[in-house]
Amino acid sequence: MRKIKNIFSLYRLDWRRIFSNPISIFLVVALMILPSLYAWFNIKALWDPYGNTKELPIAFYSADSGTTLGDKQLNIGEEVEKKLEENDQLGWKFVTSKEAVTKGVKSGKYYAGIYLPSEFSEDLLSFINGEIQKPTIEYYFNAKINAIAPKITDKGATALQEQITKDFIETASSTLFDVFQEVGYTVEDNLVSINKIKHLILSTNNHLDQIDTYANEILALKAQLPELKTKLEKANELTDYLPEVDHLAEKLIALNTKFPEVKQQASVILTLQEKIPEIQKAGEQVAMVDEDFAQIVATMTQGIDEAQAALTIIQQVQDLLPNVRQLGNDASNFTEKTQEAAKELQTALPTIQKIIHFNLEALGGVSARVNSIATDLRLYLSNPDTSLTEEEKAAITAILTKASTTLTQQIQLVDGLINWLNQVNMNQSFDGVIASLNQTKDALSGLKKANDALLAVINQISKEELLAYITRVEQMSATVNDLVTNLLNQDITGQIDQVITNDLLPALDNVKTLLDKSSQIDFESLLTATSGTITSAITLLEKYQAEMPAIGQEIHDANTLLNGHMTEIVNGINRGAELYQNELPVLETKLQTAATFAQNDWPKVREEITTTLATVNDKVPTVESAINMAATLVQEDWPTLKQGIEKAAEAIKKGEEVVDLSDIIKLLKSDVAAESDFITNPVELKTHEMYPMDNNGSASTPFYTALCLWVGGLLLSSVAATEFYLSQEDKAKYTKRETFVARMLTFLTIAIPQALIVTFGNYFALGVDVQNPVLSVVFALLVALSFMMIIYVLAGLFGNIGKGIAIILLVLSISGGGGNYPIQVSGKFFQMIHPLLPFTYAVNLLRESAGGVYWPNAIGYIAVLVALFFAFALIGIWAYPHVEGLNKKISALTKESHFFH
């Protein structure tokens, strides 16, 4: 609850800062309105792009000299020109020469030009003479003037060609049916001649089923042509992957060569399987340590208490020494005091022995502590960069500083042991131990000196120098480990007990007879050294005691991890060994087979594929043309022929001596006008418009609305900062996530008026045709919030790189979002990324409210946008504190160029 209050507190602070500055208010209002202007200008420009095509100048010139049909003079070019004069769909300009057409188009005076040659009419009617010559229409257009104009003028030329074709078919069919009608009226006079083909018609009729079978096979073959061509295209695409297959074959051969080495390395799983009992035993040992850890902690606490008690006793002994000195001339009193001190020392002896023993054992951890320094430093050698970053140098400085403190403590501990042993070394019993401790002290002092020297030049240190230091640390760790191991192998505490019991205490008991000898004992130095040793031990014990909870937790975690998953670990090792023994040989055999194929057979297969595809590609056009011609004959001509044959055969079978051709006569005497109209327009097109849109501007509105909302988010992320500015005092009050979410709310708040302004402007200012205005506003709000969330998270997590990603998404969305053109006409790349772009679902959702909502589609688009909103919100909230350091590092690198801010 407190975090939510903090977020809204920061959110209110954001808006107070904005409203406290007129420039800030102006910029925020501008960022709300400017994206809408981008959409409105484009929508208005595309409102009716094809409504003024009559202003497009197109030159026309006919040089047609005409022709005669019987006794009738015809000039198709003149007829075409008369019809174009009545046509106002394009700006027709009638010029007087072909040169005027070509020069006008070349200069840009006309967008296009059409020229009919002098033999146009003659070629159009050439079929009458039996020598067909297709007439030509010469069409010129200037492609560089404009991208869309050639498409519009091309439609004009095509429409002209279709009109001429239609008029020609209408005239020809009318004339043909006139002839048929005349034949129908005279066929009765020619029955005798028709009898000559009677048997041919009957024979053909008897084989119609067989002919139909052949015809169906031709049509089936034609129907399969697209599938065959698609398969051929896919087969051709296969050649694009041949280099990849070659590369894969090379990898297979290389992998097969290296497989014995891989197999040998994988055999380590068998060794690991043999070590399973040792792993299980290690788990038992960890569990035992975890179980006894509380007792270890209690023992350490008891050691600290006993050490402090011993320290108190020694202090009491030191307090008695002045009295002993004052009574030095009094032998009797001196003896009593000395014996009293001896008894106190004898009482503290077990504790002193424990402390000395603990200090020696503490030295056993010196090697591990020194080695941990090298382990920590080696982490910074894994980075492939040759130089250390500032963050890495700071981390290394912290490690070296801590190492210096640790080494100082260890040296003090060794010093304390040496001083104490020197005080009790009455018969040179501890000379060897003291010598080993001095060597240990020298080694630690040398390491500390190297550590402090490296720390002094940390800003200029290189990875080579760091590696040299790590090597020295590891060598020194081995040396210290050997020295400490040698010390621990000696029974020092037993020697201490022997020296104090056999030498020191008897001397004190026999103080009267050995007064001279006991006077040589420097009790003050001995007790001072003992006190220092115990104090060092207490400091070290308290340090270890402070670390015990963390150590205990780590041991408990290790016990839980190891013993809690011991079955899975053992099963995993056994499964790995089983795979090595059973599956790996099978894989090796299959790999050898694949490599043999890649090396020996694949080159031949590749050559055969390439050669076969080249041959098929050469022959397919010829085969396709032949099949299409046959299919056209079957589809267009065969039904009529079949019907005529069937009717003729039926009529013939009605009489034995006289042929009844009444049905044929009726067919030939049919209505000329109706038959001619059917041939000219055989199919009637009935149009049903779904989700109508008033104009092109309204149809383009969803695309440009979504585009302006994305642009609005980009503009805001470029002008406004994603990082929340706070004073040093306020930074302690709020977390990074709270500032990130607060600024997120500010960005989302600005997205709302951006969506409202553009949708209200579309509807009220431009008059865009919208079937559901309320839903158009709601959908635009959802799109604006989703887009703003995506852009804010990208910019907040990755800075300028995130803004660059948002710009890349914008560029890809213009072509890959399916906004203006169907995605199917775009390239394969844009078809692939189409479902991955947020823009796709935004445009589709806005189209639903514009043309009419189809809820099964709309719900899917809404779900995607809502999912994107929450997914980016959660990712940003979670990741922001983690990537802040990386973001600052990237920002620092970009600023080094002194070009990017």
Automatic annotation (TrEMBL):
Signal sequence, renumbered to the chain: none
Listed transmembrane segments: 21-41, 703-726, 747-768, 774-798, 805-823, 858-880
Membrane topology summary: Multi-pass membrane protein
Coiled coil: 211-238
Phosphoprotein is among the record's keywords: no
InterPro entries hit by this protein: ABC2_TM, Phage_infect_YhgE_C, Phage_infect_YhgE_N, T7SS_ABC-Transporter
Keyword vocabulary terms for this entry: Coiled coil, Membrane, Transmembrane, Transmembrane helix
Pfam family, one: ABC2_membrane
Major site of localization recorded for this protein: membrane
Gene3D superfamilies: abc type-2 transporter like domain
Intracellular or extracellular location(s): Membrane
PANTHER family attached to this UniProt entry: TRANSPORT PERMEASE PROTEIN, TRANSPORT PERMEASE YVFS-RELATED
Protein name: YhgE/Pip family protein
